[in-house]
Design a protein that fits this description.
Oligomer: single chain
Radius of gyration: 21 Å
Helix content: over 70%
Number of strands: 0
Number of helices: 8
Order of helices and strands: HHHHHHHH
Largest sheet: none
Strand content: under 5%
Structural class: mainly alpha
């Protein structure tokens, strides 16, 4: 996953510090401050500036930057939702592509985090990731990063499906000999 582009896209789409313009009600200055904080690695500070800017001007570019800060803070669910909102509201094809691409990365990361505890949820998240990359490619068919990441998501889906199928077969084989599994609770005991 090419996550390094997240930072670059964030600053390019909303302007480098000192260059944000066209935002209403003082939002430009707040975006500039947020971009500076983001560039310095102060993602919590950046988020605060972006949220204040969004209160003054709810443009998708600001939502995109808020999502970037949330992602860097490890809040991938919130980030993915904001990137989806930004993509839906974007009139700029580059912003729509970047938002869908980044949402795909956020869903992929959530899938990786869920894979051990809830492989079925992980499978759904990888599917949503693939859908996001497909949507990014629809916005920019030449987007090489989204194409590569779509391949990775599809490969991860296939691997996880195969693993789940193998586990299901193993459970069927070990449970099919008429003996009770000692490490499983009895079903229907009503305790």
């Amino acid at each position: 996953m090419n996550l390094g582009r997240l930072f670059l896209l964030c600053l390019v789409l909303c302007g480098l510090p000192g260059r944000a313009s066209g935002f209403a009600g003082g939002a430009a200055g707040l975006v500039d401050q947020g971009n500076a904080a983001f560039a310095a690695g102060d993602f919590a500070g950046a988020l605060e500036f972006y949220e204040r800017a969004a209160a003054k001007d709810p443009r998708p570019e600001i939502a995109f930057n808020r999502a970037g800060a949330l992602y860097r803070l490890g809040k991938t669910e919130e980030a993915a939702a904001l990137w989806q909102e930004a993509a839906a509201a974007a009139s700029n094809p580059a912003l729509a592509y970047a938002a869908r691409y980044n949402a795909g990365n956020a869903f992929y990361r959530q899938g990786e985090e869920a894979i051990t505890g809830d492989p079925d949820a992980a499978l759904d998240l990888f599917g949503t990731s693939a859908d996001s990359f497909r949507a990014a490619l629809a916005a920019d068919p030449g987007g090489p990063d989204a194409g590569r990441n779509l391949e990775l998501a599809n490969r991860r889906i296939a691997q996880l499906r195969q693993r789940l199928q193998q586990e299901k077969q193993q459970q069927g084989q070990s449970g099919g000999n008429g003996q009770e599994k000692k490490d499983q609770p009895d079903a229907g005991q009503g305790d």
